[in-house]
UniProtKB/TrEMBL annotation:
Record organism: Litorilituus sediminis
Residues with PTM N6-(pyridoxal phosphate)lysine: 208
Record-linked InterPro entries: Cys/Met-Metab_PyrdxlP-dep_enz (IPR000277), PyrdxlP-dep_Trfase (IPR015424), PyrdxlP-dep_Trfase_major (IPR015421), PyrdxlP-dep_Trfase_small (IPR015422)
Keywords: Pyridoxal phosphate, Transferase
Cofactor field: pyridoxal 5'-phosphate
This protein's GO CC annotations: cytoplasm
Protein family according to the UniProt entry: Belongs to the trans-sulfuration enzymes family.
Example GO biological process: transsulfuration
GO molecular function terms noted in the UniProt entry: carbon-sulfur lyase activity; pyridoxal phosphate binding; transferase activity
Name of the molecule in the record: PLP-dependent transferase
SUPFAM superfamilies per record: PLP-dependent transferases
Amino acid sequence: MRKQQPITELVFDGDNNIDPYGAVVPPVYQSSLFTFDSWESLEQAFADKENSVIYTRGNNPTVQFVEQKLASLAGGEKAKLFSSGMAAISAGIIHFLAQGDHLITLKNIYGPTATLIRNVLVAKMGVEVSYVSGECLNEIEQAIKPNTRLIYLESPSSVVFSLQDLEQISALAKKHNIATMIDNTWATPIYQKPLALGIDLEVHSCSKYLGGHSDIIAGALIARQSLIKDICLQEYELLGAKLAPVEASMLLRSLRTLPLRMERHQQSALRVAEFLQQQPQVAKVFYPGLPSFAQASLARQQMTGFSGLFSFKLNTDDLAKIKKFFNALILFQKGVSWGGHESLIYAPAISCSVEQTPEHMQRMGISYSDMRISIGLENAEDLIADLANALAKL
Ligand SMILES: Cc1ncc(COP(=O)(O)O)c(C=O)c1O
């Protein structure tokens, strides 16, 4: 039988064997524990704890059903859902590192991930860290030490959307017996398949495109079976950041339309990025889908499409003018996060200046003129009109 397209796999639940009535939507098993008919069946369940449904902090049938869908979509053997993207990131990173180990990561990773590394791994666990731009293999090779255990990537990275060559980096890491992990939230498994390029562990904030409607916070790890098993029995169960069954069910509903939404986000983002690129008030647009993007050929080599989040730099450092532009937007609502139905604008410097050290902000190259926008599902021409109106205030 021919390999099904992602949309077919996401819509079709004919393999739903968790509902005895043939319901088209799998039931929400809102139960904290599951009972057994004997000592022997309990013993049997504990012998396969990774898969058994015993207690919802470990496994739950509704959550497992969604995990299977997600693993299949990403081309991984197994997925594990968490209560947030940060819970998944924390469990994954902590899994690979112990006191005295060395980690290589990017200057431009998501802010709270950088804080986790600095405040928990470095300050409390005694892990060493090196920051690289990730754009050049040589730079990563030179950062490798005898105690390097993990290379943590995010491609495209936060704010500047720079890419890393996943195939080259994973080959280099394998040569040195180093694990690789990537935050693949931006591209989603629809447009980028890091596991097929040799990356060991893929992490997602499902609070963005996978959830898609700005109404759930969730996270996921996807990898080969043995790695997910080790994480399940240690960090997943012990840190306890499981996803609630009802939220897993909401995530499943969202996944059914993921390919359709991504297509629309991509189309509109390209239109808006092209518009912004031509405006005199805009100094630079950072969108991997633009032919003028600095790493456009790598973008096309390792991604099959692009999402709707990007940033641009205004042509002024005058904070009063920047605020005037920002506050004049109507359709672009002002707030954090991204990947939902609604368009959003945010200036990363607002939170970075509070949450990050001045050195980290400088390392990221962020200033108040950097605007990040998430293109939602509205009509692209309406969004452009809103931006044109606000740019006219500059
Ligand atoms: C790239 C990226 N990774 C991870 C996260 C964290 O996800 P969550 O908010 O679900 O914990 C975010 C959230 O904004 C993000 O932008």
